[in-house]
From TrEMBL:
CDD domains per record: PBP2_TRAP_Siap_TeaA_like (cd13603)
Entry-linked PANTHER family: DICARBOXYLATE-BINDING PERIPLASMIC PROTEIN (PTHR33376:SF2), PTHR33376
Name the record gives this protein: TRAP-type C4-dicarboxylate transport system substrate-binding protein
Pfam families named in the record: DctP
GO biological process, one term: transmembrane transport
Highest taxon above the source species: Bacteria
InterPro entries the UniProt entry points to: DctP_fam, TRAP_DctP_sf
Keyword Zinc-finger: no
Length: 327
């Protein structure tokens, strides 16, 4: 073999090695709507770090919090085309596309955050994730959550009558809209990051929210009545684009799945761990607090059940599982 030919072969071999390396090493993009200080965002960063380490520095993940890549509907579209690789999503957008996920929002399905975490770790909740590849083209890695939903309002809410006509901010999705419509309120869908201004400028009278965000986003500065109702849980799901997933080696799939599942579990246990202290902190603020239970909302719940039992056939299995996990 002459020298030139040898050199050409060597160059070609190097180029091949480099290109196959490039095909393996990835800089994934992960989007989410929560602000940087929210635990979803900090755990997304922690997931990025762990994946980088465990892949021996081969893979990295750039995290885009605070809706930098768009709202959840837009992120789901990007995930479907493969323009976005990963996301931590509220179940809101998923339940708009796969109604069975609406079952997770059945009012008083669970009693508290511990019960919610147990249900989200169950096989019954895992079966919902299996609907995602065919239903939305996403692969679910596991669940996270925030704390239970409460109602913060400018005027006191002491009975369901007080909810009538209230412009009440909701996360944009159908099961929660149907619940508040049944209470007589006028639901106003708004993404998390628009809530503070909407409350401050009077666009809404009340908001559906969790303890954590009431504290970290300081919503209590704009409304001083709190209905501690614990009426719904609020799951999150960690997802990978189905298109991107199919391009990954079995080894990378296993690495990403186990690593993301671990960090999602940190979110579940993190919210379990914070809940009591956050409730205490909120009770220590100068708010007028009223407590509510399923009885308070009984008519609205009956109406919700009538619609969603049919729309979300998985509700029955989830309710049975929740009952088994009630302690
Ligand atoms: C919401 O109220 O829409 C929301 C709250 C969170 C996280 C994500 C969404 O704490």
């Amino acid at each position: 073999m002459n020298r030139l030919k040898t050199l050409t072969l060597a160059v070609a071999a190097t180029a091949l090695a480099a290109s196959s390396l490039n095909a393996q090493a990835r800089d994934f993009r992960l989007g989410l709507i929560t602000p940087p200080q929210h635990m979803w965002s900090t755990e997304a960063e922690a997931f990025a770090e762990t994946l980088h380490e465990r892949s021996g520095g081969e893979h990295s993940v750039s995290v885009f919090p605070a809706q930098q890549l768009g709202n959840e509907a837009q992120m789901v579209q990007q995930l479907q085309t493969g323009a976005l690789d990963m996301a931590f999503l509220t179940i809101a957008e998923i339940s708009n596309r796969i109604p069975d996920f609406g079952a997770l929002y059945a009012p008083y399905l669970v009693d508290d955050v511990d019960h919610a975490a147990r249900l989200l770790r169950s096989d019954a909740a895992g079966e919902l994730l299996d609907l995602m590849p065919a239903g939305v083209g996403l692969v679910g890695m596991g669940y996270g959550m925030v704390g239970m939903r409460q109602v913060l309002s400018r005027d006191p809410i002491e009975s369901m009558d007080d909810m009538r006509g209230q412009r009440l901010r909701i996360t944009p999705f159908e099961p929660i809209r149907d619940f508040y419509t049944a209470t007589g309120a006028a639901p106003a869908p708004l993404p998390l990051l628009e809530v503070y201004d909407a409350l401050a400028n009077g666009q809404v009278d009340a908001i559906d929210m969790d303890f954590d965000s009431i504290l970290i986003l300081k919503f209590y500065e704009q409304a001083d009545n709190l209905l501690i109702s614990n009426h719904m849980m609020f799951p999150m799901v960690g997802v990978v684009s189905g298109r991107v997933w199919r391009e990954l080696s079995a080894e990378d799939q296993a690495l990403i799945e186990s690593t993301m599942a671990e960090h999602l579990e940190n979110v579940l246990s993190g919210f379990q761990a914070m809940d009591a202290a956050q409730e205490e902190e909120i009770r220590g603020l100068d708010l007028n607090i009223v407590e509510a239970d399923a009885e308070f909302f009984s008519e609205a719940i009956a109406e919700w059940e009538a619609t969603w039992a049919e729309k979300a056939p998985m509700l029955e299995a989830l309710r049975e599982e929740a009952e088994r996990l009630r302690q």
